[in-house]
Amino acid sequence: MPMLKDPSIKYKPFDPKLTLNDRQWPSKSLTKAPRWLSTDLRDGNQSLPDPMSIPEKKLYFQELVKIGFKEIEVAFPSASQTDFDFTRWCVENAPDDVSIQVLSPCRPDLIRRTIEALKGAKKATVHIYLATSACFRNVVFGMTPEETLQKATECTALVRSLTKDNSQDEVFKQTHWDFEFSPETFSDTSPEFALEVCESVKEAWNPSAENPIIFNLPATVEMATPNVYADQIEYFSRHISHRETVCISLHPHNDRGCAVAAAELAQLAGADRVEGCLFGNGERTGNVDLVTLALNLYTQGYYPNLDFSDMSKVIEVVEKCNKIPVHPRAPYGGQLVVCAFSGSHQDAIKKGFKKYEEQVKSTGDISWTMPYLPLDPKDIGRTYEAIIRVNSQSGKGGASWIILRNLELDLPRGLQVDFSGRVQVESEWKGRELKTKEIVDLFKDKYFLYDVQDEADNETVAMLDIFNLKDYTLTNEGKNRSIVALVSSKSQELELKGLGNGPISALANAISNYFGITFDVVHYNEHSLGKDSNSKAVGYIGVRVGSHERIIWGVGVDEDVTEAGMVALVNTLNGCIRDKLVKV
Ligand SMILES: CC(=O)SCCNC(=O)CCNC(=O)[C@H](O)C(C)(C)COP(=O)(O)OP(=O)(O)OC[C@H]1O[C@@H](n2cnc3c(N)ncnc32)[C@H](O)[C@@H]1OP(=O)(O)O
Ligand SMILES: CC(C)C(=O)C(=O)O
């Protein structure tokens, strides 16, 4: 029995050791982007089974710059020659406005090596960390609180002497130095002790309002619900002295699956900066996902200062370098998050797009109100074609969307229902999703939408012995129209004669007369295809034959709108012959 019936004998509820009854964060809203730091190349990379090679790191770095990151943690330079060399490459290649951040533990030898890697950088942030929680102090370091405080302070003083106070080395003087300290395991540290250590570190660094110190307060392990983290951050923000000289940074991990929520609530609680990775890569369950955080802001109408216009490219780089696939359901970016397979979703989205396109056309108003889709897929470089996909769970909306997007045919409701039955049979038979081309081909075959200019289509028409409207003459007979129409297939030619109050009804009457059946047009509509003067017209016709309940649908395309309807009618005859409702 691996799971305990009484887990309380093993696990205790988290005690934040903090009472913040006058918390302010719950009544605030997020209205601007924080400072972002990507730690993909450090925290993300250190968690990969196969860390990135230098070419992969370069590719990733360039993508981060393209997205718009101005602070990038590029490595743990003392860890390996690869990390050191890559830091050197960043120093030489980073754009002037991008600050290169590197991480080191509070170990003087490693701090020296780390700072050596930054020589010549235009903008650099030295980031050191030391765990402050009782668990880590006792289990990992065997250090008292006083020893921890002393080590953090001494290492900060060392970084200061090697960077902003380094008067020995001219090259070091050229760099704009920032300093970041992480009381690692902050989420599990007594709030008073985290504050005490940070006050001492702050004094050792001596920041200013112009050059604030960064206190990165990590949820190294996510310990509790996000509101607890928010309280911890608000407590720190309200109690740290000279708040204007401090930038509060977040570094949430996702152990409980709440990293995004924690980062959002903690920003409400006063944080200025967020560290994380694209698509939440990182130790264990990952760092906070910066794509989600940024696009959450965007879909509230606030520009996140990160540009995901080419999401597919971002995913390509992330997957190539991390060698971990981005989950198809990853918020915003996942391949399946803008795809609807099920009938109700497709129906709502299709109606939503119709309304939206009308709204934009008639008023120019692009404000987004779309069932099921919080983000316009176009904003992240996705096409509308990919939104609706068709399988056995789909209704009429799905297949007709594909036909609309690919053939520009806005099918009448009855025809949608008719076609969706055919699609359903096909997808169940194949036991899988039907691809766009399969659906389009299915439609062309079912409604005889063959192109006379196309050789392959002509062969099909001949093989299936399908009737075409070859010629016709219409004459007025009082209020009525009389028709003589020539329809031909490969094997025969028929002369049909009839009378009606218009060309369509005259031809329907001619078919009735020839085959000795009732052939009633119960649905007719048409619309134009294309927007220019060469545009064609499409006609849709539904007929009821004899005593059959079923309506047989035909579609016809022609330069002339009347002829499009007549072609559609001849195609209903083809449908009747194929379905053996009419004998030739
Ligand atoms: C939460 C985080 O993600 S923190 C970042 C973690 N990232 C990494 O560790 C990736 C790179 N790390 C490495 O390549 C190696 O760990 C190195 C090069 C830094 C150090 O390697 P080693 O010297 O072999 O040490 P090792 O990794 O075995 O153990 C860590 C040692 O550092 C100490 N240590 C751990 N964190 C810190 C810290 N923040 N400050 C000071 N010392 C620390 C540990 O107590 C341990 O000391 P001990 O050997 O006296 O018990
Ligand atoms: C070094 C720190 C910021 C860290 O990675 C963590 O605590 O998760």
UniProtKB/TrEMBL annotation:
Name of the protein: 2-isopropylmalate synthase
InterPro entries named in the record: 2-isopropylmalate_synth_dimer (IPR013709), AIPM/Hcit_synth_CS (IPR002034), Aldolase_TIM (IPR013785), IPM_Synthase (IPR005668), LeuA-like_post-cat (IPR054692), LeuA_allosteric_dom_sf (IPR036230), LeuA_N_DRE-TIM (IPR039371), PYR_CT (IPR000891)
PANTHER family per UniProt: 2-ISOPROPYLMALATE SYNTHASE, PTHR46911
Listed cofactors: a divalent metal cation
Gene Ontology terms for molecular function: 2-isopropylmalate synthase activity; metal ion binding
Catalytic activity, EC: 2.3.3.13
Keyword Amino-acid biosynthesis: yes
Protein family according to the UniProt entry: Belongs to the alpha-IPM synthase/homocitrate synthase family. LeuA type 2 subfamily.
Pathway: Amino-acid biosynthesis; L-leucine biosynthesis; L-leucine from 3-methyl-2-oxobutanoate: step 1/4
Reaction it catalyzes: 3-methyl-2-oxobutanoate + acetyl-CoA + H2O = (2S)-2-isopropylmalate + CoA + H(+)
GO biological process entries: L-leucine biosynthetic process
GO annotation, cellular component aspect: mitochondrion
Keywords, sorted A to Z: Amino-acid biosynthesis, Branched-chain amino acid biosynthesis, Leucine biosynthesis, Metal-binding, Transferase
Domain Pyruvate carboxyltransferase: 34-312
